[in-house]
Fold this protein.
Amino acid sequence: MAANLLKTIFVIVLLMLSAGRLSAQEEAGCVDCHDADSPAHAVFNTVHGSLGGGGSAACTACHGASAAHDRRPTKNPPDVSFGPQWPSDAETRSASCQTCHDKDDQLLWTGSEHQQENLSCDSCHKAHQQKDLVLGKQESEKICLDCHTQVRAQLHLPSRHPIVEGKTACTDCHNPHGGPGHAALRQVSVNDNCFSCHADKRGPFLWEHPPAAEDCTLCHKPHGSVNEPLLTARGPALCQQCHATAFHPSQPYGSEGLPGGTANKNLLGKNCLNCHSQIHGSNHPSGARLTR
Ligand code: HEC
Ligand code: HEC
Ligand code: HEC
Ligand code: HEC
Ligand code: HEC
Ligand code: HEC
Ligand code: HEC
Ligand code: HEC
Ligand code: HEC
Ligand code: HEC
């Protein structure tokens, strides 16, 4: 009940604020106590400092009108707090930011994995710092990797996307606020994600290799792998996961091909790719077997 009432008041005040109907006098409170010496004032050095016209109106834009808190002595929490003393729940915190940021990149926040895992906007963003570190590519990566330790390990494997090298960043591929499809990617499908940088793999090809058209991650790991180049498995084994039928070279090699035995052409070929080099698809008239 009480929470609902507060929420209603919060919304009404926000509406009034945006309509510019609250006088400066009524909302003068926040900066009286949270004065120029308090760390909270750093917010005036950010884009949010002028919200509502500046002053205390900036504070209430995110923390709510906070009538119960806005009096001496202060015993009650503000309507929306990001802690440390009276932290609101994640939903309330994010809802505060979303009154203004519910479009563009933030459109798909609700329902995203991060939202469902109880993260809130302030898990990554700092509103009271002149420089919100998470907006910088290199810095944001550190913040991501604090939680994603498994990905951190993948970034240092011998074959990898040049992420630690600074040529690609998590946010080139992922939208941390949620995406339209799988794994919060910026694109609807994994392949559309890959094509956004590797356009040459898009085709259309006269002779397609179905797994490449279907999902690049059938053969590649996006972050890093022990197998060059970013492959899920090495050499013939990669191909033989699918091509295990009783046909020429797609069978595992036996000892009969070893020196002393009868060296066969498959062994000399070593890797399927020596002959089937157009593994992503071919446009050659006689490239049906992806050999040219
Ligand atoms: C009468 C003095 C006073 C006024 C007026 C006041 N505050 Fe506070 N506020 C405090 C004190 C004291 C604390 C607790 C100690 C601290 O964090 O400085 C506090 C804490 C906070 C916190 C941190 C809450 C937490 O969970 O740790 C926020 C956010 C906050 N105030 C926002 C506001 C806003 C927004 C307004 C204006 C609507 C406001 N305050 C008006 C005295 C005041
Ligand atoms: C853009 C939204 C936003 C605005 C505007 C804003 N805050 Fe905050 N506030 C936050 C967030 C988010 C945190 C959590 C810490 C952080 O992100 O830096 C926070 C933390 C706090 C804290 C607790 C931590 C601390 O620094 O002591 C206080 C107190 C506070 N705010 C008061 C204020 C006051 C007073 C104003 C107006 C001068 C204000 N805030 C304006 C979003 C905002
Ligand atoms: C009352 C409206 C309002 C609220 C509430 C609000 N913002 Fe903003 N925010 C703005 C405006 C206006 C801008 C500047 C224009 C823009 O980039 O859209 C902005 C810009 C930003 C930016 C880009 C900053 C930059 O330097 O480019 C970030 C990040 C951001 N807000 C995060 C937050 C977070 C996190 C919260 C909640 C803690 C929040 N905002 C709450 C209005 C708001
Ligand atoms: C997992 C970390 C994370 C969370 C959680 C998060 N953000 Fe962001 N946000 C980022 C990163 C990284 C960027 C900069 C890269 C980008 O544009 O995607 C960013 C950029 C932004 C921007 C400015 C740039 C732009 O063009 O959109 C706004 C505004 C913003 N976030 C608002 C929010 C709001 C509101 C929430 C909560 C609903 C939120 N963020 C939650 C990481 C996060
Ligand atoms: C506070 C911890 C935290 C931070 C910071 C964080 N994440 Fe996450 N993230 C999670 C959790 C928890 C999950 C769900 C479990 C999992 O997949 O690991 C998740 C899931 C994801 C997913 C999978 C989404 C899906 O729909 O399956 C992606 C992608 C992701 N995070 C990217 C990022 C990026 C990029 C950043 C930095 C901008 C980031 N995360 C920062 C905690 C975090
Ligand atoms: C080149 C594009 C790309 C970059 C850069 C990238 N990712 Fe991913 N990420 C993907 C793809 C594609 C998937 C989906 C993988 C799958 O489904 O097999 C994924 C999956 C994830 C997942 C879901 C769990 C998992 O491992 O499958 C998390 C978490 C994640 N990425 C975090 C990150 C973080 C953190 C960074 C930055 C350090 C990052 N990613 C950089 C493409 C990328
Ligand atoms: C944001 C751009 C971007 C996206 C999206 C992207 N890549 Fe890359 N990729 C790169 C860059 C940059 C390189 C390094 C190229 C170089 O160094 O010449 C690279 C290299 C590679 C390599 C070769 C690695 C090596 O060791 O030589 C493979 C394989 C690869 N990407 C596969 C993928 C797959 C699969 C996807 C989709 C999941 C994808 N890429 C999405 C930018 C991207
Ligand atoms: C059937 C397995 C398979 C699939 C599916 C696959 N690849 Fe590859 N990819 C390979 C192999 C094998 C190599 C190494 C080729 C070589 O060494 O000549 C490779 C190499 C690459 C390279 C680096 C060399 C180059 O040709 O630029 C990139 C980039 C790449 N793949 C992107 C993709 C993208 C994007 C997709 C999805 C459209 C994809 N791959 C799907 C097996 C695959
Ligand atoms: C994820 C399963 C998968 C993987 C891994 C895979 N392929 Fe395929 N490949 C297919 C499918 C499905 C077809 C289509 C078969 C058909 O049309 O009968 C195909 C077709 C082919 C063809 C054309 C054959 C024909 O009948 O037109 C060649 C050649 C081929 N693959 C070679 C390779 C090589 C070499 C590798 C390893 C680099 C590989 N494939 C990895 C699934 C896979
Ligand atoms: C020495 C060259 C060479 C090597 C090595 C090689 N192939 Fe082939 N492969 C061919 C040629 C040539 C054809 C076409 C045969 C035909 O059309 O009768 C073919 C045909 C195929 C076909 C199509 C079969 C069909 O049903 O029509 C598949 C699938 C295939 N190879 C998979 C593989 C795999 C998997 C490997 C590795 C284990 C491999 N090849 C290694 C030369 C090679």
